[in-house]
Design brief:
197 residues, 72% helix, elongated, single chain, mainly alpha, 8 helices
């Protein structure tokens, strides 16, 4: 069912793309507020990821409409999907912390990240099946965190199976490592933000 296959990938990737883009400009865009009122700076990228998360939940409505209309069906394993949502959210927050920090010191990041996202789109099997690729490239593509979250969801939605232990662990590890790195970098540099207004 290619339509469900495509929409599942788009739903996940679009959340990441939109949330990370907004998080990147959240600190720079609120410099005037940061200079006037003391408040935790991490609130800005975090709030953007949460806000887009509401839109993400709304996009599940058309996704499930297509699932029902195409006869793909729903099973009990769908109750595990929030796990992949949570991992995607934590990963996006981590990336948001990283790129919002970089954008303070390097304003060209706003343009560079657009190029990175374009490349990332093609490296993520949204429109194509990863099994069509040459076998020697598969390990590289499977290291993509977004592939892991999308594949987790497709295992449930398309194939009606419970994800493997490896899928559960892979999603959690990539999400937590990225989140911790993002928090560390943001916390280490946030006191210097005021010098780059």
């Amino acid at each position: 069912n290619y339509l469900v296959y495509l929409l599942t990938g788009l739903t996940y990737f679009n959340y990441f793309s939109e949330a990370s883009n907004l998080a990147m400009s959240s600190v720079v865009g609120n410099f005037s507020l940061i200079n006037k009122v003391y408040m935790p700076k991490y609130i800005f990228p975090l709030s953007k990821c949460l806000f887009v998360g509401i839109n993400f939940l709304l996009t599940l409505i058309p996704l499930y409409a297509v699932i029902f209309f195409t006869g793909t069906g729903v099973n009990w394993w769908h109750l595990l999907l929030p796990y992949s949502f949570l991992c995607l959210f934590l990963f996006t927050v981590g990336i948001g912390f990283l790129i919002s920090t970089i954008s303070v010191f390097l304003r060209d990041m706003f343009y560079i990240y657009g190029i990175i996202l374009t490349i990332w789109t093609y490296l993520t099997p949204i429109m194509y099946d990863i099994n069509l690729l040459d076998g020697k490239f598969l390990p590289i593509f499977k290291m993509n965190p977004l592939y892991q979250y999308i594949n987790f969801a497709r295992t449930i939605i398309l194939y009606g199976h419970c994800p493997t232990v490896g899928q559960f662990v892979g999603c959690a590890i990539t999400a937590l490592i990225t989140l911790f790195i993002g928090i560390f970098v943001f916390k280490k540099t946030q006191d210097k933000f005021i010098y780059y207004v």
